[in-house]
Specification:
Two copies of one chain form a homodimer. By secondary structure, the first copy, chain A, is of the alpha/beta class. In chain A, about 45% of the residues lie in helices and about 20% in strands. Chains A, B: Its main location: cytoplasm.
Chain lengths: ~375, ~375
């Protein structure tokens, strides 16, 4: 290896929540091996790691050793990899596993893995003995820039994704950027959709930076830590102002109303579509829909799609392997989303790159016409 | 019926929690039939009733009509009666039922039933779409004086009772005391153990009053509303000062460390032991254990047991149908309780009636010797 496995610089993003719930996000290479001291500093006797088979095989042993070196009793609960574990059955298995490890109220749950593990372990921690503290150790780019920060935890219900859950903030997030070295290209790309999203929501300068620097994020240059820190700062700022999504936090769902519908329509089958790919298509759709409504210049929508495509991400409904049904099917899949309120569809739309806004009460007919047009449009456009 | 089905007086106990979470407990005859206006005043389009087959057959139709008269869309989710529904499977069924009724973030869940329904529906409400509001309509004495107030919600895990849950305060509690007319004598007695508990914890005057007036609570005289209101006031005061049980709220567990262990050892089989019976034995044990430790006069312990027995409640381990195992079995069953912290046993003990206190770190050997003595003592003592 010519690349050093650790860099001296660890970046820290502080999330200044009230009520004693403020926490730090640390971002740097090698943090898994030094996690013990950071976790032990939070107090407690026991730290129970929740992970999946894939991530656990790579990192759970090292994390456990670090925790034990710091004097903590450590145990491991392992689930099957993939979205299927974010279910009622997966939740029951994690809770029972933590109880079997005798996790008590003062102890800690440590989520080691991607978004699925973080959401699942976080929800188990939120509800085990009516709430124990937890630490996020996200190992995917998606989890490092998005799901590990902000306290949304939960599982899927048969009727839809993330319909069951709790707001439960972590006490610490350790984003070991060296862990991303073991991700597949496809997983990196999927996470990158969420990175680009932060520029598209409210930071045109960050989107410019992404266009110039995205390759460094993928290859593991210092751009990686810089990007993760930028995303976490952006998310932390939104979450601090609107923790429970009564308002602007909904902006973080840019691309997600379409994206979640596509995930539903492909049966949450990662062989067909992973979350970040759904988000990438959703981002492109949100901008094209905004352009169609006359809110945003068509060339801005084009610039969004071009950049996502350059990074290897899908940007069209036609790119969904096996297809995603017709406009009505997509609309029905969107209607079960949490963001439905009193039956009206709420979208995040944009007046340009970095100028997104919440649009409640979008007309269903307008969406249907847009989707029909998209489904018949030339896939190369 | 010579007894009027409604009395003009409805008593109100206010629970002054912060953060916009203050709520009222209303206590009176006939509140189910007038619930609609009270629930509609909270806002929202839809109210989903969660109930069990037994209570639902008696009251769900009337409650639904009242909600609909007030302009709410009402639906009903029904579970099997009994502690078995407070399970992972019961939780999933209630959540999926509420989602099928299209309960959205601004809507309300209405728990209609005893402690099982309130705990289960409250936990589903706490976690459905990461939290929707809920109303408690408790129909058992136990639920009216204890479980419907204070925001503890949850389910049982195979490893123990109430090990999974959330703190989620109701927006309103409607305790219809006429609903108690349909309870069996055994259910009334079980609830009465929790009534007497409030006197034993911190209010010797209320225990005196109970000794003089308990028959009126059972027969449905005005003593019933007075007792429910006294208990709710006492609980509300404790919960307001210590919502998340960091301290004095643990006093409400007087009798429960023993009681929960007995419930575990009888397999949560209501044919053998219901919660309130476990609590009654636990209250008597807590006072006799306190007397044995020299903390409390023996005649105080005798007075407690005598009163509970007069009300028809069990007060000895020997009264558990089918037995409850030996001292070690009881100790092991207690060790899995939530109130274990860093492995030490925490008990609520008493220096006399109305003088309970939290005793952390009670010596296991001391408890074992006490239990062995209890198990060999003459059951008539």
């Amino acid at each position: 290896m010519t690349e050093p496995s650790t860099r001296p610089e660890t970046l820290t993003v502080h999330v200044p929540l009230d009520g004693g719930r403020a926490y730090d996000i640390r971002i740097g290479r090698g943090l898994i091996d030094t996690a013990g001291d950071a976790v032990a500093a939070l107090g407690g006797r026991r730290a129970a790691i929740v992970t999946d088979e894939t991530v656990g095989a790579l990192y759970a042993g090292r994390l456990r050793e670090s925790l034990e070196r710091a004097g903590l009793q450590a145990g491991i609960v392992t689930v099957a990899p993939g979205e299927g574990s974010k279910s009622y059955a997966g939740y029951a298995a994690v809770c029972d596993g933590l109880l079997a490890l005798k996790v008590e109220r003062g102890d800690l749950v440590v989520a080691l893995g991607g978004g699925v593990v973080g959401d699942l372990a976080g929800f188990a921690a939120a509800t085990l003995r009516r709430g124990v503290r937890f630490v996020q150790v996200p190992t995917s780019l998606l989890a490092q820039v998005d799901s590990s920060v902000g306290g949304k935890t939960g599982i899927n219900a048969p009727l839809g994704k993330n319909l069951i859950g709790a707001f439960h903030q972590p006490r610490l997030v350790l984003a070991d950027t060296a862990a991303l070295d073991t991700l597949s290209e496809r997983e990196m790309r999927a996470g990158y959709a969420e990175v680009a999203k932060y520029g598209l929501i409210a930071d045109p300068g960050f989107f410019d930076w992404c266009e110039a620097n995205w390759r460094g994020i993928f290859s593991g240059g210092p751009e990686r830590e810089a990007a993760v820190a930028s995303c976490c700062r952006a998310k932390a700022a939104v979450v601090t102002r609107d923790e429970r999504e009564d308002g602007e936090r909904a902006l973080l769902n840019l691309g997600h109303t379409f994206g979640h519908a596509l995930e539903r329509l492909t049966g949450y089958d990662p062989a067909r579509l992973v979350h970040g790919e759904g988000v990438a298509i959703g981002l492109a759709l949100a901008f094209r829909f905004s352009a169609r409504l006359g809110l945003c210049a068509g060339q801005e929508a084009g610039r969004v799609a071009n950049h996502l495509a350059l990074a290897g991400l899908p940007t069209r409904l036609q790119a969904v392997p096996g297809g995603c049904g017709d406009a009505d099917a997509i609309l029905d899949a969107m209607a079960q989303d949490k963001k439905v309120r009193d039956g009206a569809l709420t979208f995040i739309l944009a007046r340009g790159i970095g100028q997104s806004f919440i649009a409640p009460g979008v007309d269903r007919t307008e969406v249907a016409a847009f989707l029909r047009n998209e489904l018949t449009a030339d896939a190369d456009v």
